[in-house]
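Z., the sequence and structure:
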Amino acid sequence: MADFQYDEFLICSIQNANEGDREYLENYVSTQAAKGIKVYYPAIHTDQLDVETGGYRICSDNLDAITKANIISIYWTEKSRGSVFDLGIAFHEHKHKGKKIKLINREQVEAIVARQKAANTKKSLEMILLKLDSM
């Protein structure tokens, strides 16, 4: 992995992303690039073939990229799995280095939280994400 500082690291579902998710994410990355913002998008920048280590190398590469990014952006869906791992790294970077965490699909996460609250859910990753996004 090159020793490069990215403006943003984009946490998002890769394995479980559908066509709509991929289109949204590619548009986001293109829009940011047009503004001169360099986004590390794991679907492109992290080699997703990791047969030898079962995902360990992917997590390690993403860790390196997250720590080199200035901002951590998150596209969250309920099907996010690897994103949970990356979110833990992002939370550490936020708490110990003051890095900003921003949701790029806040409205979708707000809808998830509304359903959770209607079901009397008191805490969730989605609720934490809304808190982080507002800090």
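The radius of gyration is 15 Å. Residues 20 and 51 are 27 Å apart (CA to CA).

Let me know what you think.
H.
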